[in-house]
Amino acid sequence: MPVDLKALYPKLVNLLLDPVFVVDEHGSIVFISEACEQLLGYTASEMTGTSILNYIHPDDLERTLAAARRVMSGQSHTDFENRYLHKDGSVVHILWSARWSEEDRLRIAVARDVTALRRANQIRDALYRISEAAHGADTLRGLCDGVRRVIGELFPRDDFYLAFHDVAGGLLRVPDWSADQPSGWVEGPMQAGTALAGVVGSGEPVLASRDPDRPGLGLGLGLGLGRAAGSTTPELANWLGVPLISNNAVRGALVIESRSPDTCYREADQELLQFVATQVATVVERKRAEEHLRFLAHHDPLTGLTNRSLFYDRMDTALRSASRNESGLALLYLDLNDFKAINDTKGHGAGDQLLVEMARRLEGCTRETDTVARMGGDEFTVLLTDIRDHASLGTTVAKIREIMALSFDLGGQAVRVSCSIGTALYPQDGDTARQLLSKADARMYADKRGTPGPR
């Protein structure tokens, strides 16, 4: 019995897992196999007669048209890749094999779905980039910048937010990526009822609607517009947040949101962002531990002030800068009077509390460019930059004495203490750290004996 090949060919084509497209010279689809529904969500009847351009990702349209022109000129394509939009709005990566039939004036192509492969490549590259960012960043803030670049490549059309949560204080700490503060932080209380609060509170991914008035926070679950991943999708899921979890505790969240009204995040987006969040949480904890170790190496464990080692480094740096810029600086040496008596009568806990409070008051009397250090015991130093004369120095010393004269609350009891202060000016009193420290130390002891002399 003879075989009707013309009748058989469509049946054979429809058995293929990879869709077959036939497009005329004007871009209209004249035939498409049934596998297109698995690929793009449309049935063959829905796509037949429509323009192939309707389904191409907007960002790939120009280069796809250029590739089509090459095929129509006789150049076969076996490895052209572009992106299409699925009926549900998700992105599909397609690898094409195409040729032109001059006799029929048709483009004939076979499409292979490589979305899973590209997603796997994205995950691999993201893991590498995050690891690279962790090794290249000296600080947690630097690591955040590296993570931002990774997310920018994975979700180039979306806004990205990274928030760390302080459980004890109930505060969120967010990198400030604004133009005027490119390396700072913004801190504020967690805003209850937002989608972000839902992520941090539940430790689960949340899809929600973007809040146009509060970037990054998302409309709250209480409004019925958000959901944990796995439940019913909200009407407009253009906000996606996933938790940062480390040691079984929620440390914050990664958030992406889109300003486009057509965006609707899907499960694949959530899985990718959650994978990134898992890696980020690990490297963030490591970076925090590194920063803590560096802090302990350069700061006094009781007061948190700069320690003796770091103070000397900063003083050397300040002296080189003052010499180069022909500017001045001043050094203050402080010592609490009768500190031993407080320890003996009220206990070492009260003594420690007094030292901590003294440290905070000294910080409050100085500028961010100045350095306050604990040299040991009840001795402190203050390095003041851009101080040129005794009058300016005297104003600062008077302010410190006034603040220190206020009573301290030690265990519910008001205690008044005094301190002795010695000063030295650069370059009047010396041009090396040793000379200035020696001069300020001598004047501090003279002040303690009641014969302050010049200071």
Automatic annotation (TrEMBL):
Q: Where is the signal peptide?
A: none
- Per its UniProt record, what SUPFAM superfamilies does this chain match? GAF domain-like (SSF55781), Nucleotide cyclase (SSF55073), PYP-like sensor domain (PAS domain) (SSF55785)
Q: What are the PAS domain coordinates in residue numbering? A: 5-75
Q: Which InterPro entries match?
A: Biofilm_reg_signaling, GAF, GAF-like_dom_sf, GGDEF_dom, Nucleotide_cyclase, PAS, PAS-like_dom_sf, PAS_fold_3
UniProt xrefs under CDD domains? GGDEF, PAS
Q: Which residues form the GGDEF domain?
A: 327-455
Please identify the protein, giving its name as recorded. Diguanylate cyclase
User: What species is given as this protein's source?
Assistant: Marinobacter profundi
The family database entries (Pfam families) matched by this protein are listed as: GAF_2 (PF13185), GGDEF (PF00990), PAS_3 (PF08447)
